[in-house]
Amino acid sequence: MSTKFKYAASLSIAATFITTLLSTGGSHASAQSITTPAAITATFISQPVVQPVATATPEAAIEAEAADAASLSELVEETQIPSALSNELECLAGAVYFEAKSETLAGQLAVGRVIVARANSGRFPASYCGVVYQPSQFSFVRGRSMPAINRDSHAWQTAVRIAKIADEGLWKSPVEGAMFFHAARVSPRWDKTRMARVDSHIFYR
């Protein structure tokens, strides 16, 4: 083989090798540009997750407290006497005391719930004291005052507990919804719907 032919063959092989390298490099760059995914930017927002917390309504709390007691007697025993009575609770307890202190707990509660019903009715004064001191409604009231109360007596303590139960609606009275009552020994001509007699009182709507 001549020297010129060898030289030409070598140049041809070298050129082919360089072309292949360049072609491969170009293909590789092209593949990168096609297969490499575009940059994805993820944005994270940090915010507190607020979930509503179930809270007991006043009605549910009252029902739960009453549900713990198996009887009105038990509920009265469990009811705490406030360290200081509001004027309203004082008026309510006073009415229970003077109208029904010698009666059963059911009878006392029935009297208390009548006063609560009146105060909430819109037909009578909108406060317990207003209901109790309304003229010609309760015989124990003298003007704008009640007789003296023995506040150390068991009867007063029971009346306060009953007043608290009546005020908070912790126990239904046997004549729930009654708005009027009178002593069973009298017979007023009332055009009202009679509900029932509880101890020494007759109750009406």
Automatic annotation (TrEMBL):
Tell me where the signal peptide lies. Answer: 1-29
Q: Which residues form the Cell wall hydrolase SleB domain?
A: 103-204
GO MF annotations in UniProt: hydrolase activity
Which of UniProt's keywords are assigned here?
Answer: Hydrolase, Signal
Decide whether keyword Hydrolase is in the record.
Answer: yes
**Protein name from the UniProt record:** Cell wall hydrolase
Gene source species? Novosphingobium jiangmenense
